[in-house]
């Protein structure tokens, strides 16, 4: 399958290094100032898969895309250091970025896919900051392409793709046509570390910046966040001596 | 009201000597709070027990005389990363895995990897080491600066505040005085660490040998050949057998070396070829190597599971790790004599070792409810330590002195050495408040 791959949406996403995530005092969102951002872990897996496919000479080119403010370019650089060939930074900042959701991102990706004549879009299954798990599916719908989501194994066979999906009931084997959208699940691969020599080489690779308007996409959100609040404090548990005590306590609490 | 928190009793030093919780635990959030609390303790002559992750193996966090435990887990910032200078400063709540996850995008890492996901400041306090010390060194070589709160609350920067030159000859080496001091000289509240570039590529290999001598000879020759090997781990036949049973593997049941090479693609080919030739010339067999992550992990599975495989030999028992370190040339002899000792005394002690450093661990699997067996283990560990001392080695390569090795330290250092250490302790902590009862034995009046 000789094609270009529009690789993962590398969304700068809250890295788990930071201590507790805190809700803003006005309950409009979470505090993002000073919180370390880095590539979404599932997107790392998607980038790794794309690079592996290129190393097997099954695809021609890997393009890394990220939507966000200036800092998103750092995540594109990481993807380039992992082996992507070039990057596209879709510049969205300020209020637009705060309200950027899966629908707008998938419109952007669909537009880019057409512009770049991509045959394969690889994304992480979900971002670990919003856990939406929608972008891949929406992108496929907008392009009217088949989708292979929660992929734990991917293999190309001629112009078709064999996929194993991790689903609640077990593992599902499907075969889909290309062009297609694939979203990566945890066990698809173990992403490589960006090494210093590769980071240096990546500095010479190109990143192009575009605006959503250039792609004909309107990023106005159709959702309004009403309130963000912390989950209720966890109450202390209670120990009981016997199973009978447990049943009594559960009945008292109206749970059975 | 005093708040008491239980400390984990999973080290034999603690379960030999009973769990010793402190009277109070405090959770300072910054060095100013640590200093203020230390001043309070100093005024009231309360013992101070610093606590990072509590993963030390020598009873370091046991509060022998009660007192105040300073749990530093809320100071968890990674400060001041300088990728171009290869250094970073961290607070005590940052563990080694957390730091490496933080550093991922920079192409840098901190390679020292003791078994647990330990606090980096705690690792500085115990002068920790890991499986790749043969290439990257231990904490002693990789701590550039420390911020320490002393027993009276004063705050010292061991290399000067904010300083991070790669080398220095300015004054006494205070940094390495506190590295390995196990909380007995001060509370470490920041450490500045030396970072390394993540290797471009890694290759792992496994090789079986007909004897311990053959395995160690291969190690020495590989180092002499100038191969910058990153990890050489040794597992004896008992350990390999345990791993085969635990993980359903089929390694040949003989002394085995697990090797790892770091470098560029070209240099790796050369390194592996040289090592393979050396192992073959020493009677090594079944040399296998792998480049990709998944196969490398499979090859090294035995080494990764060693602790659990040892425990699984006797379900219901606990494990204690010995930690002697000798010059490389003495390693075959000490391992052979130690294995004879184990058999003679009917003890279960599979061996795993960082053979490139001359350091090995007997994982003593013992029934904690059998005082006779516990006693036999205790005597065995003393004989082992003395065997190592007699071979110009040390009673502790990585784990520290803590509670259980204070007498051995006296034998190792000799009276004058111990006196010098005691003088330093008296100078910095005249009231013996800092983690009393560790490293040095004090004559109780």
Automatic annotation (TrEMBL), chain A:
Family: Belongs to the ETF beta-subunit/FixA family.
PANTHER family referenced in this protein's UniProt entry, alphabetically: ELECTRON TRANSFER FLAVOPROTEIN BETA-SUBUNIT, ELECTRON TRANSFER FLAVOPROTEIN SUBUNIT BETA
BP GO terms, sorted: amino acid catabolic process; fatty acid beta-oxidation using acyl-CoA dehydrogenase
Keywords of this entry: Electron transport, Mitochondrion, Transport
Localization, UniProt: Mitochondrion matrix
Domain Electron transfer flavoprotein alpha/beta-subunit N-terminal per the UniProt entry, residue ranges: 27-219
Organism: Astatotilapia calliptera (Eastern happy)
GO MF annotation list: electron transfer activity
Gene Ontology CC terms, in alphabetical order: electron transfer flavoprotein complex; mitochondrial matrix
General function of this protein: The electron transfer flavoprotein serves as a specific electron acceptor for several dehydrogenases, including five acyl-CoA dehydrogenases, glutaryl-CoA and sarcosine dehydrogenase. It transfers the electrons to the main mitochondrial respiratory chain via ETF-ubiquinone oxidoreductase (ETF dehydrogenase). Heterodimeric electron transfer flavoprotein that accepts electrons from several mitochondrial dehydrogenases, including acyl-CoA dehydrogenases, glutaryl-CoA and sarcosine dehydrogenase. It transfers the electrons to the main mitochondrial respiratory chain via ETF-ubiquinone oxidoreductase. Required for normal mitochondrial fatty acid oxidation and normal amino acid metabolism. ETFB binds an AMP molecule that probably has a purely structural role.
Protein name as catalogued: Electron transfer flavoprotein subunit beta
Domain of life, per lineage: Eukaryota
InterPro entries in the cross-refs: ETF_a/b_N, ETF_b, ETF_beta_N, Rossmann-like_a/b/a_fold
Keyword Coiled coil applies: no
Quaternary structure and partners: Heterodimer composed of ETFA and ETFB. Identified in a complex that contains ETFA, ETFB and ETFRF1. Interacts with ACADM. Heterodimer of an alpha and a beta subunit.
UniProtKB/TrEMBL annotation, chain B:
Record-level GO BP terms: lactate catabolic process
Gene Ontology MF term list: D-lactate dehydrogenase (cytochrome) activity; D-lactate dehydrogenase (NAD+) activity; FAD binding
Claim: Methyltransferase is one of the keywords in the record: no
Main subcellular localisation: mitochondrion
Protein name as annotated: Probable D-lactate dehydrogenase, mitochondrial
Cofactors demanded by this protein: FAD
Domain (FAD-binding PCMH-type) ranges: 17-198
Protein purpose: Involved in D-lactate, but not L-lactate catabolic process.
Natural source organism: Astatotilapia calliptera
Family recorded in the similarity comment: Belongs to the FAD-binding oxidoreductase/transferase type 4 family.
Keywords: FAD, Flavoprotein, Mitochondrion, Oxidoreductase, Transit peptide
EC numbers: 1.1.2.4
Localization per Swiss-Prot or TrEMBL: Mitochondrion
InterPro entries: FAD-bd_oxidored_4_C, FAD-bd_PCMH, FAD-bd_PCMH-like_sf, FAD-bd_PCMH_sub2, FAD-linked_Oxase-like_C, Oxid_FAD_bind_N, Vanillyl_alc_oxidase_C-sub2
């Amino acid at each position: 399958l000789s094609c270009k791959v529009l690789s993962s949406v590398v969304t700068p996403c809250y890295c788990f290094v930071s201590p507790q995530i805190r809700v803003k005092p006005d309950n409009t969102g979470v505090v993002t100032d000073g919180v370390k951002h880095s590539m979404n872990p599932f997107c790392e897996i998607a980038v790794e898969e794309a690079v592996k496919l290129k190393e097997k000479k099954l695809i021609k080119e890997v393009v890394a895309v990220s939507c966000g403010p200036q800092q998103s370019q750092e995540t594109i650089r990481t993807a380039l250091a992992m082996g992507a060939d070039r990057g596209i930074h879709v510049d969205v900042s300020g209020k637009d970025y705060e309200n950027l959701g899966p629908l707008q991102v998938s419109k952007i990706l669909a537009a880019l896919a057409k512009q770049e004549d991509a045959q394969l879009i690889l994304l992480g299954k979900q971002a670990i900051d919003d856990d939406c798990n929608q972008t891949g599916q929406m992108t496929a719908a907008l392009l009217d392409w088949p989708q292979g989501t929660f992929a734990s194994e991917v293999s190309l066979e001629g112009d078709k793709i064999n996929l194993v999906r991790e689903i609640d009931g077990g593992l599902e084997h499907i075969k889909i046509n290309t062009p297609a959208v694939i979203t990566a699940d945890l066990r698809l691969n173990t992403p490589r570390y960006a090494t210093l020599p590769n980071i240096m080489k990546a500095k010479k690779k190109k990143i192009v910046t575009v605006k959503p308007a250039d792609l004909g996409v309107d990023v106005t959100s159709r959702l309004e966040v009403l309130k963000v609040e912390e989950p209720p404090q966890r109450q202390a548990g209670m120990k009981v001596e016997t199973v009978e005590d447990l049943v009594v306590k559960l009945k008292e609490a109206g749970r059975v | 009201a005093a708040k008491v928190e239980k400390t984990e009793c999973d080290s034999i030093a603690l379960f030999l000597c009973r769990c010793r919780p402190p009277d109070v635990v405090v959770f300072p959030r910054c060095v100013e709070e640590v200093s203020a609390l230390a001043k309070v303790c100093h005024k009231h002559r309360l013992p101070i027990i610093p606590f990072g992750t509590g993963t030390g193996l020598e009873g370091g966090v046991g509060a022998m005389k009660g007192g105040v435990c300073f749990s530093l887990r809320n100071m968890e910032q990674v400060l001041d990363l300088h990728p171009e200078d290869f250094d970073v400063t961290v607070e005590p709540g940052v563990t080694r895995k957390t730091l490496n996850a933080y550093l991922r995008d920079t192409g840098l890492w901190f390679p020292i990897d003791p078994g647990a996901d330990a606090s980096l400041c705690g690792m500085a306090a115990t002068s920790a080491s890991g499986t790749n010390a043969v290439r990257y060194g231990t904490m002693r070589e990789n701590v550039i600066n420390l911020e320490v709160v002393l027993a009276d609350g004063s705050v010292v920067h061991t290399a000067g505040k904010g300083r991070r030159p790669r080398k220095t000859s300015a004054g006494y080496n205070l940094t390495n005085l506190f590295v390995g001091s196990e909380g007995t000289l001060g509370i470490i509240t920041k450490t500045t660490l030396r970072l390394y570039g993540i290797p471009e590529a890694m290759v792992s290999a496994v090789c079986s040998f007909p004897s311990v001598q053959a395995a160690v000879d291969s190690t020495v020759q590989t180092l002499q050949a100038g191969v910058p090997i990153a990890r050489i781990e040794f597992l004896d036949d008992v350990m390999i057998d345990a791993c085969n049973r635990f993980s359903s593997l089929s390694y040949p049941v003989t002394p085995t070396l697990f090797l790892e090479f770091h470098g560029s693609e070209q240099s790796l080919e050369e390194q592996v070829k040289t090592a393979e030739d050396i192992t073959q010339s020493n009677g090594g067999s079944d040399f296998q190597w792998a480049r990709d992550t998944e196969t490398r992990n499979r090859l090294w599975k035995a080494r990764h599971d060693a602790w659990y495989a040892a425990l699984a030999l006797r379900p219901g028992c606990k494990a204690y790790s010995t930690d002697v370190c000798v010059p490389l040339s003495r390693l075959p002899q000490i391992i052979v004599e130690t294995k004879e000792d184990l058999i003679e005394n009917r003890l279960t002690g599979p061996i795993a070792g960082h053979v490139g450093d001359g350091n090995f661990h007997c994982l003593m699997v013992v029934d904690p409810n059998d005082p006779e067996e516990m006693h036999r283990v205790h005597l065995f560990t003393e004989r082992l330590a003395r065997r190592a001392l007699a071979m110009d080695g040390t009673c502790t390569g990585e784990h520290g002195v803590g509670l259980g090795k204070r007498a051995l330290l006296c034998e190792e250092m000799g009276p004058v050495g111990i006196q010098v250490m005691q003088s330093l302790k008296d100078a910095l902590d005249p009231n013996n408040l800092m983690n009393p009862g560790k490293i040095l034995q004090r004559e109780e009046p």
